[in-house]
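User: Please fill in residues for this 302-position structure.
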């Protein structure tokens, strides 16, 4: 079952098509990466999903039902730009936003106390937003996004402005929300973070989705049959025709093979010849490498 289904969505602004026949699904309980270069159409898609604007064509469904005016209360959206009123105090501001999402005053106060205590920021309650650093504001923005316990979270560059300690804290909270049943869309340019926490991704470029699927399957699809071998001993003077040396140094070699099974045959040959194998690993492309490759290819096609 999917928490979100986007089917053949199109969004035009005057003579510009920002979203061009995009389709993808977000499984329930998934951390999902929404990727793409600047100007790819990600923000336009997010605005459609959150109900800020409407698609010109196509259908967006949340938890099995076509998107309607009641669904925004089931979505938490943290934009890249701060959506906070600078003159308001933290506590008052969070209660106000929670009430806008349908919580009673009693529920809002309960959730506020929970999150201030969880982040150990009770002392911020009476501080004005403008008194907070960028990282502190990011924490408040995060709380405002999750305080009403939405089914779907959309986090746009959630780690922006955070130091490594608070970045890890935010990651832990994202994982905990997932275990509690929330589904999370993460939009970011930090590919290493995508690789670390996302299970599925969709890559948008020039308004179209050019790649989507589970991260593991995407990496498998783009693998180049490269293997890194650390060894002790002497390698054979000549290698089989189906083995190409990519890099070579003392007691470490990177090879490329025509087929994965060739690597097993080569490994067996080395062992037979008395070479001691310390480690043998396949080198899969990073999400960042795949991102660059696909975006460059789509430019060429366009």
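Assistant: Residues filled in for all 302 positions:
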């Amino acid at each position: 079952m999917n928490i979100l289904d986007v089917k053949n969505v199109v969004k035009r602004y005057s003579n510009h098509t920002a979203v061009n026949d995009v389709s993808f699904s977000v499984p329930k309980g998934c951390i999902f990466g929404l990727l793409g270069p600047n100007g790819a159409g990600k923000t336009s898609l997010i605005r459609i999903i959150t109900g800020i604007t409407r698609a010109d064509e196509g259908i967006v469904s949340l938890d099995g039902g076509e998107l309607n005016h009641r669904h925004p209360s089931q979505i938490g959206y943290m934009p890249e730009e701060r959506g906070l009123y600078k003159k308001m105090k933290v506590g008052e501001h969070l209660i106000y936003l929670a009430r806008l999402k349908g919580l009673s005053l009693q529920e809002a106060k309960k959730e506020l106390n929970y999150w201030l205590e969880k982040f150990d920021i009770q002392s911020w309650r009476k501080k004005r937003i403008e008194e907070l650093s960028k990282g502190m504001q990011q924490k408040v923005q995060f709380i405002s996004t999750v305080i009403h316990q939405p089914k779907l979270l959309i986090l746009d560059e959630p780690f922006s402005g955070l130091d490594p300690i608070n970045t890890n804290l935010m990651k832990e909270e994202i994982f905990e929300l997932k275990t509690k049943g929330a589904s999370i869309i993460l939009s970011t340019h930090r590919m290493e973070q995508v690789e670390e926490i996302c299970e599925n991704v969709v890559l948008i470029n020039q308004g179209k989705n050019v790649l989507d699927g589970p991260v593991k399957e995407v990496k498998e699809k783009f693998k180049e049959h490269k293997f890194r071998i650390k060894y002790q001993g002497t390698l054979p003077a000549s290698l089989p025709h189906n083995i190409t040396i990519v890099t070579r140094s003392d007691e470490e070699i990177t090879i490329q093979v025509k087929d994965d099974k060739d690597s097993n045959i080569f490994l067996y040959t080395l062992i037979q010849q008395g070479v001691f194998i310390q480690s043998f690993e396949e080198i899969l492309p990073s999400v960042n490498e795949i991102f660059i490759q696909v975006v460059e290819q789509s430019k060429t096609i366009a």
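For context: The chain has a mean pLDDT of 91.
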